[in-house]
Amino acid sequence: MIQFDVSHAASFLPPDWLSGRTAALEQARVMLEEGNGPGGDYTGWVHLPRDYDKEEFARIQAAAQRIRSNSQALVVIGIGGSYLGARAVVELLNSPNFNLTHKDGPAIYFAGNGLSSDAMLEIIDLIKDKDWSINVISKSGTTTEPAVAFRIFKALLEEKYGKQEARKRIYATTDAHKGALKGLADAEGYEEFVVPDAVGGRYSVLTAVGLLPIACAGVDLNALMEGAQEAMEALSISGTDNPAWQYAAARHALYTTGRKVEILAGYEPSFRFFGEWWKQLFGESEGKEHKGLFPASVEFTADLHSMGQYIQQGERLMLETVVRFAKSHGSVTIPHDPDNVDGLNFLAGKDLSFVAEQAMRGTLLAHVDGGVPNLTVTVPGRDAKSVGALIYFFEYACGLSGYLLGVNPFDQPGVEAYKNNMYALLGKPGYEDRRAELEARLK
Ligand code: PA5
């Protein structure tokens, strides 16, 4: 279903780029399948598309139905892995303008993914005259950004509906047993959904973390999971024709021969947040021990008129992975103009997607000629089943890639550094010494 093409990177790859890695790929495959490699406790996502909790899945769909019927807006509170997957899928399957274009169900506002007062005030203003609900998502239940946002939105919801009714409009997605959010949800009687222990944030989009907001956007969850399951079955098989093996091997070979940056390129504006999700997936999984490709993303053709210059002629440090969708949702025909002042009549009667296809093909060759290896991932369409498969393809390839690189792809020790400094500077009890030290350095 997902096709991978390495032919436009072939001239940059050593002859044994794949054959020289099959043993390591097989070892990585077994570690993922059996959960016995580094970080193996967090490989619960590997068989999730088949083994997911069906009872909870039905509850997610029922809750989404309720939210769709009683809310004009849904505030989804979460950050990082508790945010990006849902936004990526909602936008990719619809539009970055989802809140303007959706026909039924609630507008979806993502909050708690930063600390901007102005961004929060904007959401508060947008929802104030609407009926709305909250889905608060935090595995740890203690992450500052969503916890602060939840406190604020919870107070607003209680002010609007009263405590009793507000409780029925709050859906908490968190750990099954522990954490501040779990304690609060239990005490208040919110409907709860679980972030499974064995699934880390960036691999959690196909759990309740992603599925509840995605269902609220009207997406067919069964199709999404079906696509992921088909990909799971196809990608678990050993062999050099496995597209996840090819992708992991190609990017690893390019990395070890000097490439430092991987650019994910899409041609659909709705793909932007999928790129953000992909950046977290690969950046947090590989970027450790001073290793790993730096993941970047671009939106073509817009960025061909800005970053295109650097990609074509700047420092030769990147590889490019292009994600193309085989078909558009609709079609736009370029009209004939009798005056032809713009000289575009040679395109009259052609579909805009034909122009896009030629832009994509021309860019591919230009970038290869400029010294940028191009990998291509082709997805049948922007439909739920294909996107489910695409998510799983990247997750599985990321797991393989981390093991090829020799790192634990499922931890993220580096994200603690800023948190500890922030806690100290905020005056959190227990951080007094660190606070004094940091304040002195910041003087
Ligand atoms: O991938 C990760 O682990 C992070 O991005 C987390 O998802 C993010 O920090 C949010 O954590 P939590 O869900 O505990 O609030």
UniProtKB/TrEMBL annotation:
SUPFAM superfamilies cross-referenced by the UniProt entry: SIS domain
Key word Translocase present: no
Molecular function via GO: glucose-6-phosphate isomerase activity
Class of enzymatic activity (EC top level): isomerase
Pathway info: Carbohydrate degradation; glycolysis; D-glyceraldehyde 3-phosphate and glycerone phosphate from D-glucose: step 2/4; Carbohydrate biosynthesis; gluconeogenesis
Transmembrane segments: none
Protein name: Glucose-6-phosphate isomerase
Native species: Flavonifractor hominis
Lineage, highest ranks first: Bacteria, Bacillati, Bacillota, Clostridia, Eubacteriales
